Structure formats: structure tokens, C-alpha cells
Amino acid sequence: MEYADYRRYDATGLAELVARGEVSPAELLETAIGRAEAVDGRLNAIVRPMYEQARKRAAEQPEGPLGGVPFLIKDLLQDYAGLPTGSGSRALRDLPRPRHSRVVERWLAAGLVVFGKTNTPEFGAKGITEPEVNGPTRNPWALDRTPGGSSGGSAAAVAAGVVPMAGANDGGGSIRIPAACCGLFGLKPGRGLVPSGPDHAEYLQGAATDGVLSRTVRDSALMLDLLTAEPDPGGPYLPARPDTGYVDQAARPPGRLRIGFTTRSPLDTPVDPEAVAAVEDAARLLADLGHDVEPAEPRIDGHRLAEDFLAVWYTGLAADVAHVRRVTGARDTDFELDTRLMAAAGRSMRAPAYFAANHRWNEHSRTLAAFHAEYDLLLTPTLACPPVRVGELDTPPALRTAGELLLRLRLVGPLVRTPQWRRTVTANLAAVPFTQLANLTGRPAMSVPLHRTAEGLPLGVQFVGGLGSEGTLLALAASLEEARPWAHLEPAL
């Protein structure tokens, strides 16, 4: 199959071709591998090729709703039995996993042909994808820019046409941020809907979840149907699923929605005029489609929310680093400096302070619920600025030296309790201040690729829904996709 023909179809369309016998899984796989080999030298999206396993699987003519479609999984939390899940870390790059993650099992059951694992920052802890062990992934739309993170490798591969859809996960924006950077659709499902087993009950106290990045809304809807078809018998929840599937819900008109929008950063940090323009343009389009749209935002203290989110994030990272050290015997030098600093911040937190921060998640959730009692959806920028340049967020040499000294002297704990640390936290989140709200509250949210900057860079807008609003989000996204199509847009690589 020629690449130009392959690129015309989304995953659903490719599966239909296979089902009709118009193309074989092996032909699709070789086209995908050929595209990967043609572009990945410039992108660095795939960090672990799995061509041998994939060719064997394709030859077996896998059946299922997506039978024979090439697919990539993220090298974080998405374990493939017998292969390492590197998590962007030197410490884990050679440690094989004993079994598949539940989501990988469901992707294989759907007939997908997995032929590689994609790049991610160390432990998924950044909104860019520049791990020291693998090197940076680059944005297909502008090679000097980031594809976002932490699912940046998957986003770059989808945007570049290697696959129509790829595995991702989202603990603070890691599906929506790269979707916004790369001109893709990205839906973060609500808490507990997608299983996290068998090694986890839930990720990050339920703030993180698996999903996909895709070029079309219907592919994401189908994937949500497949991932949620059955509850995880060992999981902590029995999630409520709609009476009709998400594909059917996406195909229905969304009805007249009440949508509140804001362009103000919850951290009171600057928002680029392009990000403002993206939301204002989306608001006009929504009004033209018959929705009720007006300025509004939930009454949440964004600074408090960020601190409460990071309290759980840092302590979780500290536990992850400690676990990896126990399992692998890894040394400090096997982890990046920024990871060690965040883990040290987590270790410095006392249990009552951690409990209080996690307890306040309930307050933030109820405040957002009050907003959703009046508005169906919240519209914001996904990013506060266009995709940053690769290397722009590197820790400066002087601060690296200071960080090493603080770690050596065990002074990170006292620093965490200073205004200087809080200012540093705010600065680090300034480019992505809008996405953590949906993670902390467990609400579904999506990034929709409706805007292009004056330089031609993608810049998505975010919609946050109430509990169980995945179907509403998908229906709205499908109507926006019809009004302003994006799947045909392709970077000139």
C-alpha cells in the first residue's frame, strides 16, 4: 500500500479495508514501518521498535474491530510482556515486564498490530518529551518545537502519519497537551472508566488514565468503547457506562449546550495572544453552531489547586523512584536531576500535609461541580502559549549546580516550604496551567485542534465536562470536526 493511500484513512477506515480483503495486515504494517523509517530519524518518536513481533502478529491475520491496524504504545505504564517499559529512565530501560497491562491486552484483543513503543519524559513528569536517556522528540509541524508531553512520542508519530492513532496516558494533561501541540484530537476519560490493572488499582490517586491520541473523533470514540467494554474485576470501581456506545454517541447531534469560557490563567500567569485567539475563535464557532456561550469560570483557587496536585504528584514520584531503586539497584545517577529534585520534594512532605492536600481535591471537585450545574462544559486554552522550542525548558547550568548541591546537603525539604519554591512551581506550570483541573477532579476533558497560529503551528482548545460527560464531549467534538475538518492536514516532512 502506498503511503499516500495509507494516510487517507483513519484507524476505523483501515480496519474496514482489511475486513473487506482490500489490503492485508502485513501490507499495512510494512507501510507503517516504511513511514516510520522515513521520518523518525528527524522526530525521535519511537524508542523501541517491535518489528519482529509485529510481523509475526500481522501474518496471523488478527481479528477484531481494529483487526490488522498498525499501532504504537507509549513507553510508560503500557506494559508489553517480555519487553521493558522504559518510562524515559535509564534505570528501567533494560528491565523486561512479566505481563501485558490491561489496556495492552484490550488493544491486542481488538486486533491492533503493535510495532513499537513511543518516547516519554522520565516517569511522564513533564509537559515536554526530552528525556536524557532517549533524547528529545520533535514536533512534525516544526522540528525545532516540542510535540508536548508526556505522550509526545505518540503525538509526533500520529501527526507524522506513521499511525492513525497511538496509545497515550494523561496524569496532568499528557494526552491533551501533545494533542494541542500536534494538531490532534485527545480525550482524557474520567476517573475509573479505563482500567489501570493489573499492577495498579488506579494511577496517581485516580488523576491519571490511559487513552489514545488520534486524527479523528470516531477513532477515539471507538477506542473508548473497546477500553471500557468490561470492568476490571480487580479494579477499585465499577464504572457506569452509557446505554449506547461512545461511537453512537459521537454520531449524534450534541444538542444545545451551555458553555462557559475563560482565557485567564488559573495561576495568573501570562496567556499568549494566540491562545486567547484560539478560545475566542472557538467561542464564535460554537455560537454559530447554536450553543449558548459566555465568559465564565469555576471559583477555584488555581494556586491552591496546583499545590494540592503537585503534593500528590511529588510524593508519588518519590515512591516510584524508591521502588525502582529497590527493584533494579539503580543509583542516583540513573535518574535525571529534575526527577531527583521532585522526588526529594515528595520525601520532605509529612503525612498530615499530604493527607490534607489530597483531601482538598474533594473541595476542588465540588467547586467544579457547582460550575457544571450551570454550564455543561468549560472552554479554555489547552496551552497558555504555542509549542515551546526544544530545549527551551532545560534547567540552566547554574540551577543544575545549585540543585545538585541542595540534594547533597539535603536542603530540598526546607526549600519546598519557601516562597521561592512556590514561584518556581508557578513558573514551571505557566505554559500548561489549564489541564491539571480535570485530572485532580477526575472529570473528562478533551483538546480539539481548531486553531493555527500565524506561524502555522497547531494550538488546540480544551473542553472540560462534568462526571460522565464523555459522550457529550465526543458528540460536540464530532460536530466541530464536521464544521472545521482537521484530519486531512499534514505536516510537510
Describe the structure.
The chain has a domain at 3-257 and 451-483: Amidase signature (AS) enzymes (Alpha-Beta Complex). It is built from 18 helices and 11 strands. It has helices at 3-7, 11-19, 25-43, 51-59, 102-109, 152-159, 176-182, 217-227, 246-250, 273-288, 302-328, 337-347, 351-374, 397-409, 412-416, 419-429, 436-441, 470-483, and strands at 46-49, 70-74, 113-118, 165-170, 185-188, 209-214, 258-261, 292-295, 377-381, 445-452, 458-465. Helix 10 (273-288) links the parallel strand 7 (258-261) and strand 8. Helix 3 packs antiparallel against helix 4 (51-59). The two termini are 19 Å apart. The model has no long low-confidence stretch (mean pLDDT 96).
Throw out a few tags for this protein.
42% helix, alpha/beta, AS_sf, three-stranded mixed β-sheet, 11 strands, single chain, eight-stranded mixed β-sheet, Amidase_CS, Amidase signature (AS) enzymes, 12% strand, 493 residues, Amidase_dom, catalytic activity, Amidase
Low-confidence stretches: none
Largest sheet: 8 strands, mixed
Order of helices and strands: HHHEHEHEHEHEEHHEHEHHHEHHHHEEH
| Beta-strand fraction estimate | 5-15%
Helix share of residues? 40-55%
Total helical segments? 18
Name the strands of the widest sheet in spatial order: 4-6-5-10-11-9-7-8
The strand count comes to: 11
CATH-level-4 superfamily name of the domain at 3-257 and 451-483: Amidase signature (AS) domain
